[in-house]
C-alpha cells in the first residue's frame, strides 16, 4: 500500500528572520481565481468610495494680514517659507510647518502689487502703488536693526507686477511698459512697449529664460524676447487676461487666466488657436499657477473657489471652497507639488492638499503598493457609470451651483440660436467655429 | 505685398495717363499729318510705351517720370530725361562732357566703381521696420523653442516620470565655511570654544593638532631608540632614516596615521563580517562554508606536502586523529533523533532517504583512511558529483508527477524537443551559458508561466462560450474541439516523456541544465507571437499601451489560427506530421467560414443586376463558377437555422429532477419510467413573447440584462477606437491575486512619482543633454543695442522686396 504524506521543504516557508514577511505560496492558475473582472470592479468601486470619504483637502489657514492678500510668492530654496503681500502694503513671511508668521514688513503705501523672490532665495522684491520697487533681505534684521529695504527704486509710473529672472540678476516690472532691470542699476536696461494700455502682469519663462509674457488691459497677451529687446507677437482675446503662467516642463506652453471665466493654454509658436480651453469657473479667473511637474495647474477665481485642471483636459478635476473663503486673488502650487496655497479677499492664506485624499507623511511600502493599485483600478474602471458618478461627485456652495445651471442654460440658448441661424441662412454663410477658435480675436505680428 | 499692390496701382494709373496723353498728342498729329515715316516712328514709340507700361504692371519696376514731349528751353536738373523712353539715365551720359579733361580721371574712376553698385532703396517707415523685426525675432525664438519638441513629447508619453528630474547631489560645505560665519554667543558655547582654543585645535587642517604633533615627535624619538621589529615593520621609514625626521616628520605621521586607519578599518570589517556570518542560520549556507573550508584545507595540505613534508606529516597525524575521533563518536551514524525520524520517513519520502544516504556517505568519507591524497581527492570529487546527481533527478521527478499539472506540462512540452536533440550536442558549452544567463532565468520562467495562464484562461472562456451554444459560437466550438484534440495530444506526449525520463534517469542531470537554457530560448521565441496573437490578457504596460494605439485589425479570426499553428508546432516536435496537417485543414475551414459569412450576400446582389444579353455565355460561365463555389450554402436557410438556434438557446429550460435507480432498478440500458420522468420534470415558465416573433428577417437578442446595464459602459471611451480594445483592457486583471509580484508591480507603476520634501525645479537644458548658452541673458541684452544686426538687415530687405 502506498501512503501519500504531506511533505514540504522548510526553505519554502521558514523565514530567515522574524522580521521577514511570511511567504505565502500562491497558485496563479486562472481557473482557481475566477471572476477577475467583477472582483476588480468591486475593488475599484470601494477605492473610489474611500477616496471620496478621505477627501479632506483643507489643511490650515494662515491669518494675520489686515487686508486682502494681493500676491503670494514661493521661496525657491525652502519649502516651508511663503511670502505674501496685502492690500495695505504689508508683506508677511510665513513658516508653513509651524503655520506662523515669522516676519512682518510694512513695505509700501497702498497695495503691494507684486512680489517675487530672487532665484537664490537670499532676497525678494516688491512693487507697490507708491511707484517704488524695493528689494528686501530674506533674513530678518538682527536685534536692534531697523527693517529697511536693501535697495529702493523710485519710478515715474505705478508698477503693477514684477517677476525675477530665473538665472540672472535681472528682473522685469510692468505698468505702462515692460521694463527689464539690472539689479545693480536704478534705470531699466531696456523697456518694451506695444500699444498704450497698462500691463497687468509679466512672467519670465522658467526654461528658456530670455522669454517673457505679459498681459495688458486691452485684452491682449504679448510675448517678449529679452535678448533681442523686442516684442515677438501679440494675441488679442475676447476679454482681458489677468495673468499668465508658463509650464515649467514644456518651454513653449503657457496658460492664461481670463476674465471670461475660462483659461486658455497656448503653444506660443501657434497663438491663433489655443491648445486647450479650460472652462469650469463661473466668474473671472484671477490667478493661475502650474504644478512643478507640469501636468496640472491650479486657478483662483472671483467665484470664491479654486480649481485644479489637468493640462490636457478642458474640465477641472477638483474644486476647493470653504464657507469663509471669499474672492480668491492669488494662488500658488508649492515646489514639492503636494500643496496649494491661496490668498483671498478676507485676509487669509489657506493651505490645501493638491490631492484631496492623499495620505500625508511617510508611507510603508505595502501601503504605497496598495495606494498604487487602487489608483490603477480607479483609472481602469473610470468610465464605468457608477464609479464615474462617485468619483465626479462634488459638493458646491449654492451660489456656484446655481450660477453653473444658469450658465448652462445661457450656453444652450446661444448654441440653439446659432443653430437656427445656420439653418435659416444660405449654406456656408454661418460657418461652424470651434470653441478653441471662438475666443481668439486676432493675432498681431 | 503692400508695396507690390501699390506698384501695380501706380502702373495702372500711368497707363491711363499715357493713353490720355496719347490722345492729346494724336490729335495734332492727325491735323498736321507729317510724313509717313514720322507717323511710323511715332507708332513705334507708342507701342513701346504701351509695352513698357504693361511690363511695369508686374510690380518689379518703380514709377517712372512721365516723359515730356514738348520742347523746353529750361532744363531742370531734377527733371532729366533720357533720350528714348524706357532708357535709364546712365552715368556715362552725364560724364560725357567731363571726358575731355584729364584732370578728373581719378574722380571718373571712382564714379565707375560706383556705377557697379545699385542705388540705395528708400527706407521703410518705422512701424513697418518694427513689425519686421518682431517677425524675425519670433521666427528665431520659435526655432530655438522647437528643440524642446522631442523632450516634451517623450515626457508626455512616458510611462513613468520621477520628479525631481535631476539627481540631487548633497553638497557638503567644508567646516571652515560654516564656522567662519558662526560665532559663539552663549556662555556654554564660549566655554567649549575656549577649551578648543586651549588645545589649539586647528580648524582648517584637522590632520594633527600642535599638541598631537608634539607628542608624536616625542614618540618617534623613543621609537627610534627602541626600534623593535614590529615598529620597523609598521614604520619602515623610521627604521631606514632615523636621523631625518625633522624633514619628513609630517610625511611619517601621515603614513602612520594611514596605516593605523587601514588596520582599524580592516579589523572592523572582519568583525562585522564574522558577526554577520555568525548570525546566519541557514543550514545550507553553513554546509557550503564547511565544504569550502575542507577543500581549502585539503589544498593547503597538498601544498604543504610539497613544500614542507615534515609539517605535512604532522597535519596528517592530526587528520588521522580526527578520523579516530569520528569513529569513536556516534556522529553521522544514523542513530540521532533526527536520523531516526528520517529513517521512519525514508520509506515514503525520497528526500528523507536521500538525506540518510548522504549522512552515511559522509560517515564513510570521514572514517575512511587517507592513503594517497591526490587519488582520494579525485574520488571525493566524483562522490560529490554522484551526490549531486540524484538531487537533480528528484526534482525532475517531482515535476513529472507533482501536484500541479500545468507546471509539468510546461516542463515537458519544452523538454520533448530537447530530449531528442540533446544526445548529439555536447553539454559543456551550454552549461557555460547557464551560468551567464542565470540572472535572467526567473523572469523568463515567469513569462512562460504567465503565457501558460493566458492560454488556460482563454481556453476556459472559449469552452464556456461553446457551452452556451451561441449563434456565433459555431467557429468557437470547432476551436474548442481542436483544443481538446490538442490537449489529448499533449497528454500522450507527456506519457511518452515520462517514459523517456525514467529510462534516461542517469543522463538527465546533465541534460537538465540544457533544458533550462532551451526553455529560456523558447520563452524568447514565444514573446513575439504573444504580441501577434493578442491574447485576452495583456501582461505588461507596454502591451497595454500598444492595445491603446494599435488599430484593431478587422480579421478577428486570424490570430487564432496562428496560435493554433504555434501550438501544433509545439506538440509536433516529436510527433509525426499528421496532426500538423490536421491543424492546417482546420485553418482552411476557418478561412472558408470567414468567406462564406461575408461574401455571398454581396455577390448575390451583384449578380442579377449585371445580367446582359451580349455576354450571355461568359455570364453563364461566371454564374456556374459562383454556383460551384457557393454550392453548399443557402443564406436564407442558414439564417433561419441560426434564428431557430438563437430562440432555442434563449428559451428557459426545463429542470429534470429524476434520479435514475431511485425506487426501481437502475443500470446501463435502463431508463427511468415515463411516469416518473413526467412527475419530476419541472417545466420552465413561459417567458414573455420574443420581440422578433413576427419579424422573420431579424434576430433581436434578448440577452441584455437591465440590472447589469447600470454598471456597464454605454459609450466607447475616448482613447479607444474599438470596443474590443476596451474590453480587453478591462478584462486584464492587474491585482496581485492574478499576477505574480513582479508583474503586479509593473502593472501598477504610477505615472508620476514625486518625493515628499523635494523641490522640483523647472526642466533645464542640461538635464536633457542640451547645452544651454553660456552667456547670460542679461549680458546679451546689455550688449544688444536696439539696432538691427547684419542678419536682420538682410532679412529685412528680403521681406521688403516681397
From TrEMBL, chain A:
It is found in: Nucleus, Nucleolus. Part of the small subunit (SSU) processome, first precursor of the small eukaryotic ribosomal subunit. During the assembly of the SSU processome in the nucleolus, many ribosome biogenesis factors, an RNA chaperone and ribosomal proteins associate with the nascent pre-rRNA and work in concert to generate RNA folding, modifications, rearrangements and cleavage as well as targeted degradation of pre-ribosomal RNA by the RNA exosome. Participates in the 18S rRNA processing in growing oocytes, being essential for oocyte nonsurrounded nucleolus (NSN) to surrounded nucleolus (SN) transition. This is DDB1- and CUL4-associated factor 13. Belongs to the WD repeat DCAF13/WDSOF1 family. WD repeats lie at residues 62-104, 278-319, 321-362. It comes from Chinchilla lanigera. Residues 416-436 are annotated as: Disordered. It comes from the Eukaryota. GO terms for cellular component: cell junction; centrosome; Cul4-RING E3 ubiquitin ligase complex; cytosol; nucleoplasm; small-subunit processome. CDD domains: WD40. The gene is DCAF13. SMART domains: WD40. Residues 354-440 form the Sof1-like protein domain.
UniProtKB/TrEMBL annotation, chain B:
Residues 26-51, 410-483, 535-586, 764-802 are annotated as: Disordered. It comes from the Eukaryota. InterPro entries: SSU_processome_Utp14. Residues 771-786 have a biased composition (Polar residues). One of its GO terms (cellular component) is small-subunit processome. It comes from Chinchilla lanigera. This is U3 small nucleolar RNA-associated protein 14 homolog A. GO terms for biological process: rRNA processing. It is found in: Nucleus, Nucleolus. Belongs to the UTP14 family. Keywords: Nucleus, Phosphoprotein. Its main location: nucleus. Residues 415-424, 440-464, 535-570 have a biased composition (Basic and acidic residues). Residues 788-802 have a biased composition (Basic residues).
Amino acid at each position: 500500500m502506498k501512503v501519500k504524506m504531506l511533505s514540504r521543504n522548510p526553505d519554502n516557508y521558514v523565514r530567515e528572520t522574524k522580521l521577514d514577511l511570511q511567504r505565502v505560496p500562491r497558485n496563479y492558475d486562472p481557473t482557481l481565481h475566477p471572476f477577475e473582472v467583477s472582483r476588480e470592479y468591486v475593488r475599484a468601486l470601494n477605492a473610489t468610495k474611500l477616496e471620496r470619504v478621505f477627501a479632506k483637502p483643507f489643511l490650515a489657514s494662515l491669518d494675520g494680514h489686515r487686508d486682502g492678500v494681493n500676491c503670494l510668492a514661493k521661496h525657491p530654496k525652502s519649502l516651508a517659507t511663503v511670502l505674501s503681500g496685502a492690500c495695505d502694503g504689508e508683506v508677511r513671511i510665513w513658516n508653513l510647518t509651524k503655520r506662523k508668521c515669522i516676519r512682518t514688513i510694512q513695505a509700501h503705501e497702498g497695495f503691494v502689487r507684486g512680489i517675487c523672490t530672487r532665484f537664490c532665495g537670499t532676497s525678494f522684491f516688491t512693487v507697490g502703488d507708491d511707484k517704488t520697487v524695493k528689494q528686501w533681505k530674506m533674513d530678518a534684521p538682527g536685534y536692534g536693526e531697523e527693517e529697511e529695504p536693501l535697495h529702493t527704486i523710485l519710478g515715474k509710473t505705478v508698477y503693477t507686477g514684477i517677476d525675477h529672472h530665473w538665472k540672472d540678476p535681472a528682473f522685469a516690472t510692468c505698468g505702462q511698459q515692460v521694463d527689464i532691470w539690472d539689479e545693480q542699476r536704478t534705470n531699466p536696461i531696456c523697456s518694451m512697449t506695444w500699444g498704450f494700455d497698462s500691463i497687468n502682469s509679466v512672467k519670465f519663462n522658467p526654461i528658456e529664460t530670455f522669454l517673457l509674457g505679459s498681459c495688458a488691459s486691452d485684452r491682449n497677451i504679448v510675448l517678449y524676447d529679452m535678448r533681442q529687446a523686442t516684442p515677438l507677437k501679440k494675441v488679442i482675446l475676447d476679454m482681458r487676461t489677468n495673468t499668465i503662467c508658463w509650464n515649467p516642463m514644456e518651454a513653449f506652453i503657457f496658460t492664461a487666466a481670463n476674465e471670461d471665466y475660462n483659461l486658455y493654454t497656448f503653444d506660443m509658436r501657434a497663438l491663433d488657436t489655443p491648445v486647450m480651453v479650460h472652462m469650469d469657473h463661473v466668474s473671472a479667473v484671477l490667478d493661475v499657477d502650474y504644478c512643478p511637474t507640469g501636468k496640472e495647474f491650479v486657478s483662483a477665481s472671483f467665484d470664491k473657489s479654486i480649481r485644479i485642471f489637468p493640462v490636457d483636459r478642458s474640465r477641472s478635476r477638483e474644486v476647493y471652497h470653504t464657507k469663509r473663503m471669499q474672492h480668491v486673488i492669488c494662488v500658488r502650487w508649492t515646489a514639492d507639488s503636494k500643496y496649494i496655497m491661496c490668498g483671498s479677499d478676507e485676509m487669509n492664506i489657506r493651505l490645501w492638499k493638491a490631492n484631496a485624499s492623499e495620505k500625508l507623511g511617510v508611507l510603508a511600502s505595502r501601503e504605497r503598493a496598495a495606494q498604487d493599485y487602487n489608483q490603477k483600478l480607479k483609472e481602469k474602471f473610470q468610465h464605468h457609470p457608477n464609479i464615474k458618478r462617485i468619483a465626479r461627485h462634488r459638493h458646491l456652495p449654492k451660489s456656484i451651483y446655481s450660477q453653473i445651471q444658469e450658465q448652462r442654460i445661457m450656453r444652450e440658448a446661444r448654441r440653439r440660436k446659432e443653430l437656427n441661424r445656420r439653418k435659416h441662412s444660405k449654406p456656408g454663410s454661418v460657418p461652424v467655429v470651434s470653441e478653441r477658435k471662438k475666443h481668439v480675436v486676432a493675432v498681431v505680428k | 505685398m503692400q508695396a507690390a499692390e501699390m506698384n501695380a496701382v501706380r502702373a495702372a494709373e500711368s497707363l491711363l495717363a499715357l493713353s490720355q496723353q496719347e490722345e492729346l498728342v494724336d490729335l495734332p498729329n492727325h491735323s498736321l499729318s507729317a510724313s509717313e515715316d514720322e507717323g511710323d516712328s511715332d507708332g513705334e514709340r507708342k507701342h513701346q510705351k504701351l509695352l513698357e507700361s504693361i511690363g511695369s504692371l508686374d510690380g518689379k519696376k518703380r514709377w517712372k517720370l512721365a516723359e515730356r514731349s514738348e520742347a523746353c528751353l529750361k532744363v531742370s536738373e531734377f527733371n532729366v530725361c533720357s533720350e528714348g523712353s524706357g532708357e535709364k539715365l546712365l552715368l556715362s551720359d552725364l560724364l560725357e562732357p567731363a571726358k575731355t579733361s584729364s584732370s578728373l580721371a581719378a574722380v571718373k574712376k571712382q564714379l565707375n566703381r560706383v556705377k557697379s553698385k545699385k542705388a540705395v532703396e528708400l527706407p521703410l517707415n518705422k512701424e513697418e521696420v518694427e513689425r519686421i523685426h518682431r517677425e524675425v525675432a519670433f521666427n528665431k525664438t520659435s526655432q530655438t523653442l522647437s528643440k524642446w519638441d522631442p523632450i516634451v513629447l517623450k515626457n508626455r508619453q512616458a510611462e513613468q516620470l520621477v520628479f525631481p528630474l535631476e539627481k540631487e547631489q548633497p553638497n557638503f560645505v567644508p567646516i571652515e565655511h560654516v564656522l567662519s560665519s558662526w560665532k559663539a554667543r552663549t556662555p556654554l558655547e564660549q566655554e567649549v570654544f575656549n577649551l578648543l582654543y586651549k588645545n589649539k585645535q586647528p580648524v582648517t587642517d584637522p590632520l594633527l593638532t600642535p599638541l598631537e604633533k608634539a607628542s608624536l615627535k616625542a614618540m618617534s624619538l623613543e621609537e627610534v631608540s627602541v626600534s623593535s621589529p614590529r615598529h620597523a615593520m609598521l614604520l619602515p621609514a623610521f627604521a631606514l632614516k632615523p636621523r631625518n625626521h625633522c624633514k619628513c616628520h609630517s610625511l611619517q605621521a601621515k603614513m602612520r596615521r594611514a596605516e593605523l586607519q587601514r588596520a582599524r578599518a580592516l579589523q572592523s570589517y572582519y568583525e562585522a563580517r564574522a558577526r554577520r556570518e555568525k548570525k546566519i542560520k541557514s543550514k545550507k549556507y553553513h554546509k557550503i562554508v564547511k565544504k569550502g573550508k575542507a577543500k581549502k584545507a585539503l589544498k593547503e595540505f597538498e601544498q604543504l606536502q610539497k613544500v614542507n613534508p615534515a609539517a605535512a606529516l604532522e597535519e596528517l597525524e592530526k587528520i588521522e586523529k580526527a578520523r579516530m575521533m569520528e569513529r569513536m563518536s556516534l556522529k553521522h551514524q544514523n542513530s540521532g533523533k533526527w536520523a531516526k525520524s528520517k529513517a521512519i520517513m525514508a520509506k515514503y519520502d525520497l528526500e528523507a532517504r536521500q538525506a540518510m544516504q548522504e549522512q552515511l556517505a559522509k560517515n564513510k568519507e570521514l572514517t575512511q583512511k587517507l592513503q594517497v591524497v591526490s587519488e582520494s581527492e579525485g574520488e571525493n570529487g566524483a562522490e560529490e558529483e554522484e551526490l549531486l546527481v540524484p538531487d537533480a533527478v528528484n526534482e525532475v521527478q517531482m515535476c513529472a508527477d507533482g501536484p500541479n499539472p500545468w507546471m509539468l506540462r510546461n516542463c515537458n512540452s519544452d523538454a520533448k524537443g530537447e530530449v531528442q536533440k540533446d544526445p548529439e550536442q555536447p553539454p559543456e558549452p551550454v552549461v557555460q551559458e547557464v551560468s551567464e544567463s542565470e540572472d535572467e532565468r526567473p523572469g523568463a520562467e515567469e513569462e512562460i508561466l504567465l503565457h501558460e495562464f493566458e492560454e488556460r484562461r482563454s481556453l476556459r472562456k472559449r469552452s464556456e462560450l461553446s457551452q452556451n451554444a451561441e449563434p456565433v459560437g459555431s467557429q468557437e466550438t470547432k476551436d474548442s474541439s481542436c483544443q481538446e484534440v490538442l490537449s489529448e495530444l499533449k497528454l500522450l506526449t507527456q506519457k511518452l516523456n515520462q517514459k523517456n525520463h525514467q529510462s534516461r534517469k542517469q543522463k538527465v542531470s546533465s541534460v537538465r541544465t540544457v533544458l533550462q537554457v532551451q526553455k529560456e530560448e523558447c520563452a524568447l521565441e514565444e514573446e513575439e507571437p504573444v504580441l501577434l496573437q493578442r491574447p485576452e490578457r495583456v501582461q505588461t504596460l507596454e502591451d497595454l499601451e500598444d492595445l491603446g494605439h494599435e488599430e484593431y485589425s478587422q480579421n478577428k479570426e486570424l490570430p487564432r489560427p496562428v496560435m493554433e499553428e504555434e501550438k501544433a508546432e509545439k506538440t509536433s516536435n516529436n510527433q509525426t506530421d499528421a496532426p500538423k496537417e490536421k491543424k492546417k485543414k482546420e485553418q482552411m475551414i476557418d478561412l472558408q467560414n470567414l468567406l462564406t459569412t461575408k461574401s455571398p450576400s454581396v455577390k448575390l446582389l451583384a449578380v442579377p443586376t449585371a445580367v446582359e444579353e451580349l455576354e450571355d455565355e461568359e455570364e453563364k460561365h461566371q454564374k456556374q463558377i459562383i454556383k460551384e463555389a457557393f454550392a453548399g450554402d443557402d443564406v436564407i436557410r442558414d439564417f433561419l437555422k441560426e434564428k431557430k438556434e438563437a430562440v432555442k438557446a434563449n428559451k428557459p429550460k426545463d429542470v429534470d429532477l429524476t434520479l435514475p435507480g431511485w425506487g426501481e432498478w437502475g443500470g446501463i440500458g435502463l431508463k427511468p419510467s415515463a411516469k416518473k420522468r413526467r412527475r419530476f420534470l419541472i417545466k420552465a415558465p413561459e417567458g414573455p413573447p420574443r420581440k422578433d416573433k413576427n419579424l422573420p428577417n431579424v434576430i433581436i437578442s434578448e440577452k441584455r440584462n437591465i440590472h447589469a446595464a447600470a454598471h456597464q459602459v454605454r459609450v466607447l471611451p475616448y482613447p479607444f477606437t474599438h470596443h474590443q480594445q476596451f474590453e480587453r483592457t478591462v478584462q486584464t486583471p492587474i491585482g496581485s491575486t492574478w499576477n505574480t509580484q513582479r508583474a503586479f508591480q509593473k502593472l501598477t507603476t504610477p505615472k508620476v512619482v514625486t518625493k515628499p520634501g523635494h523641490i522640483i525645479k523647472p526642466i533645464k537644458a542640461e538635464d536633457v543633454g542640451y547645452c544651454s548658452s553660456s552667456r547670460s541673458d542679461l549680458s546679451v541684452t546689455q550688449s544688444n543695442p536696439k539696432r538691427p544686426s547684419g542678419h536682420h538687415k538682410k532679412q529685412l530687405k528680403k521681406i521688403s522686396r516681397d
